[in-house]
Amino acid sequence: MHAWRVFRPGPPGTRKFELRNEPVPDVGDRGLLLRVLACGVCRTDLHVVAGDLPVHRAGVVPGHEVVGEVAALGPHVTGFAVGDRVGAAWLRGTCGECAYCRRGAENLCPDSRYTGWDADGGYARFTTVPAAYAHRLPGGYSVTELAPLLCAGIIGYRALRRSDLPRGGRLGVYGFGASAHLAAQVALAEGATVHVLTRSAQARQLALDLGAASAGDAAGPPPEPLDAAILFAPVGDLVPPALAALDRGGTLAIAGIHLTDIPPLNYQDHLFQERTLRSVTANTRHDAREFLDFAGRHHLRIVTTAYSLDQADQALADLAADRVTGAAVLVP
């Protein structure tokens, strides 16, 4: 099979990211072997390939928004059958025993493991997923539409919940890529007023088409104070203006796994009046089930740009340069 491997992460021109021909992976005792139908190209993949994140597995195959067809099952797997369509997402393993796992915060498990970082992911013809971390997928979507739901959708949903947006509240969305355009639709479906702030004129137009009340430049102020905000762009310079845009008691949730340095904050301008700054770390399987159930009940408009598997490096380059509207998806 063909698979992309990150042998040396780094910026373009220095990294060694290659498409190889190699054997189909072993399914293991409790795993599913998936024939990859589509794999989303997430900004976290870009951080893995670019070296922004530390290497967890040398030569890893990236990709953690995997829509696959079950091709084989481990001998101890129940509840799945060959031919089932399932998803493999970012979270692929936790200890199940630590204090975090026991209290329902498995995303904070110190022994958590991740697809496309700790184990090979979906930039390949075949991949595997532990059956306990595979997801049933909603109907009514194509495979290219389903792929972004498995991280962009799930993490955007968790970030929205972490923002403590009140019912009918005013939400600011900073950056408007794959995750943001899905989280914004959830907020709109729940009655929120959404203001989008992003540097891309194309993304601003998409936001308005999806129902945002306004769409302006990322560094500018929204037209009204915000009850909550989510920072999707991995740009620390946007934290101060996003905090300053919050109304009293508002919350800013930072959705990314990587962020450039945050400039100094002024207590009076940015944090006083009980404004809250929160991070978002991965997701739980409960988050995934809730969001995928929501997507099954509320049909989301999912904007994608398809690339063939051999164009993975180009897809990452386009993502880095903000040339992708919505979500990039590899289709083997």
From TrEMBL:
GO molecular function, one term: zinc ion binding
Span of domain Enoyl reductase (ER): 13-330
Cofactor(s) required for function per UniProt: Zn(2+)
GO cellular component terms, semicolon-separated: cytoplasm
Gene3D superfamilies named among the record's database cross-references: Medium-chain alcohol dehydrogenases, catalytic domain, NAD(P)-binding Rossmann-like Domain
Annotated EC: 1.1.1.1
Listed Pfam families: ADH_N, ADH_zinc_N
SMART domains assigned to the protein according to its UniProt record, in alphabetical order: PKS_ER
Reaction catalysed by this enzyme: a primary alcohol + NAD(+) = an aldehyde + NADH + H(+); a secondary alcohol + NAD(+) = a ketone + NADH + H(+)
This protein's UniProt keywords: Metal-binding, NAD, Oxidoreductase, Zinc
Segment forming the signal sequence: none
Family annotation (InterPro entries): ADH-like_C, ADH-like_N, ADH_Zn_CS, ADH_Zn_typ-2, ER, GroES-like_sf, NAD(P)-bd_dom_sf
Annotated NCBIfam families: adh_fam_2
Family, similarity comment: Belongs to the zinc-containing alcohol dehydrogenase family.
Protein name per the record: Probable alcohol dehydrogenase AdhA
Lineage, uppermost ranks: Bacteria, Bacillati, Actinomycetota, Actinomycetes, Pseudonocardiales
